[in-house]
TrEMBL record:
Residues 282-443 form the Glycosyl transferase family domain. GO terms for biological process: glycogen biosynthetic process. It comes from Mucilaginibacter robiniae. Keywords: Glycogen biosynthesis, Glycosyltransferase, Transferase. It comes from the Bacteria. Synthesizes alpha-1,4-glucan chains using ADP-glucose. The keyword Transferase applies. This is Glycogen synthase. One of its GO terms (molecular function) is alpha-1,4-glucan glucosyltransferase (UDP-glucose donor) activity. Pathway: Glycan biosynthesis; glycogen biosynthesis.
Amino acid sequence: MKVFHLSAECYPVAKVGGLADVVGALPKYQNLAGIQASVVLPYYNRKFVQESEFEIVFEGSTRLGRKRYDFQIQKETTDKLGFPLYLIYVPGLLDRPEVYSYPDEREQFIMFQLAFLDWITWSQQKPDLIHCHDHHVGLIPFLLQHSALYKRLAKTPTVFTIHNGQYHGAFGYDKFDYLPEVNMTYAGLLDWAGGINPLASAVKCCDKFTTVSPSYLEELSYNSNGLEYLFYLERAKGLGIINGIDTEVWNPQTDPMLPAHIDAQKPDTGKLNNKAALCERFGLPLDKPLVSFIGRLVVEKGADLIPEAISRSLAEHAGQVSFLILGAGDTVTEEALQALHTIKNADCYKTYIGYNEQLAHQIYAGSDFLLMPSRVEPCGLNQLYALRYGTVPMVRRTGGLKDTVLDFGDEGGYGICFNQASVDDICSSISRAITLYQNREHLDLLRKRMMALNFSWNQSAQQYINLYESLKPII
């Protein structure tokens, strides 16, 4: 079975969030299971591309509005990521260093989709399935079915995965002429709330849509930024498949980014050595429980709650807990976190504003607890990395966090869970973490239990393969 994955991100080529981690791992595991899975991305002028060898496998041109653009399909020559990687290069449009935030972002992603379809059509390829990830490629299912240009591919099954339903990629009908000629009888399939909504269109037109956790599939029907009724109507087409992690990249026993490796059977020594290196780097006390946060500093992640929660916890538990923050995002939250360095007991608090992949690995390995007070978390990967590295996740029960973390107070549990995205709930969880840390025998038991869990892509990849196989009769 030949499958193309279309995405705006893929680790390590271009990463902004968890979308990149999924697209960088799922196809690799599918190939290991016998599926011919490839990834197609926009061209990004970034380190991975600059340091890798590519060959041009196709050249063409396509129209976007009143302008015609030349494009190239470039293939990475060694398949070193574990799958064929194709980049779509368009001079002046898809040739930039950043993934998002350009003023002509809509034009970029429309061109990406059109160039892909033109390439597949003109090169006479016949994929068995096209797997689209998030709104950036949400027009593909509609165009396959309702544009005469691609009628040869009209029966190709499509799977659409929603990594974050809060972002739709919507734009106005003033950009309708960017699309190729379509059957106007079906133009309503593009529409939601008076505009063209790629995410809504994909849900309407794809053969199956998936979410990155079962709980998130349920949540979309009451929290999807205006698409709640659509998800209610289309719920029979949906399937929740929990994300996995790449256990080769995230392996505490071999990870080259760590000062010391961690034995899953005897984690204490490795955890302590990593914590010692982390505390030495940031000047934090080694003998206190270390609570960390890694991620985007945005409301969606509950990051705006963290400054007050840390301030209150440092006052209530002076000398009993320390904190480390790694992330970037909302300027107000960044400034509030920086301002905490001036408060009392600030010697137990440090921040790193920005992102550093190696430091992230070291924080997962060296922390005692990882805080995730998310308001919205479709799946979450950070808690899975934490579990893999013997760090207790402290999570709000939502989306994938609810599906993957059991409270240590419940039978077989291993994490700290709370119900509300609030300062009170965060502080209460921090108090529980301090108490748990003081019971070293129990903490050691939880670490071994966490590190024995299997959240690899093997099982999830097979679920996607089973889904693909169920669509075969449509071909």
